[in-house]
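pinging the channel bc i need a second pair of eyes. not urgent but kinda urgent?? the chain im working w is below, pasted from the shared doc
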Amino acid sequence: MKTDILIVGAGCAGLYCALHLPKEKQVLIITKDAVRHSDSFLAQGGICMLKDDSDYESYFEDTMRAGHYENNPESVEIMIRSSQTVVKELIRLGISFQREENGELSFTREGGHSQKRILFHEDITGKEITSKLLERVKARPNVQILEYAAMLDLLSEDNCCYGAVVRLPDGTVTTVLAETTVLACGGIGGLYRYTTNYRHLTGDGIAVAFKHGVALEHINYVQIHPTTLYCDKPQERSFLISESVRGEGAVLYNKNMERFVDELLPRDILTKKIYEQMEKDQTPYVWLSMEHIPKEELTVHFPNIVKHCREKGYDVFRECIPVVPAQHYFMGGIRIDLFGRTSMGQLYAVGETACNGVHGRNRLASNSLLESLVFAGRAAEEITRQKAVMPVKRQGHMLSEESLLPYQDEEALAAGYKKTILNEIERLNNYV
């Protein structure tokens, strides 16, 4: 197979990148599972936007403080300054956000934010954005989406990427040659027992980058979300109880139904407090009460959370729900510059797979969708400017059947990649 641009992943970053590439370029998007099974579809809370210049310093400081000041200030500034442009484009593309009675955009607040600056669509903001982007991408005649096609490795020579080894839906292992490759394959949640991520998101982009010596950044910076609905079935994906719920007034109780913490602390700090309380109480969860949120607000703003809790046997209007922290987001990743370029030629990375330092050690709530879109757009602009071409000696080149044999054993390959990533995370955590 051959294409001009190969995008690995169909979340909001991969889709937004595709939408900003030249229409005369043939773009192939491959996704490991169903196209709608990306974490972008699961994002509940919202997307941040700078309301006006008076909020800039506060927004910047909130992002830096949440990241323990390990953020790249230039990345943070670009993200914040680009937010209004991105949101305006989303609205033009048909994305709907909650509005006040006077028609103005409605903003909410989440943990770590000093102001209300988060736009939302009920409690399915990610689904609203990503589904509309997907519709637009499907309408592009130059873009092909191939579901259930997994990237197994990169094709590279002389530190230049020219495509990927891919397992097709029928199990066939083949190569996809491309002038430019964009890794947009999400995070690493599938490596963990408890996670809000889809199980098939196992850090494939990180593993192949590590294998090829592509520079990585802070891959031990893994965010745990403080509040997911407790479930005693470890193989189930943890259901996230959005930070917006706490932003609107939900409170946390210990086993004696006593409030024990400020619910709007940054995620990593709140997670630590919850773990400490669980240890003190000797319980596998703490309680979350939505009693202080008006019923109409719960129904309008959080219909899917209300519905899911009801399906699990909890009436949030009348009782507390058990919540527990779970792996949620990956701040580290493949090191990129401000235009999505990696340390390997003609290889780009965007979204959760990538790390440009915008989040630092800990991500501020509702910055993920914004960061993904801003820098996916910048990567697309850079790819367009570069006008990459396939190296002459690689045109028409295909790996031999013998060289593809190591990729046939799917379980062994996945186990090897998992071990590589977790060992590297452990090494970095133990580094002094």
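so The longest helix spans residues 410-430. and The mean pLDDT is 93. — does that match what u expected or am i reading it wrong
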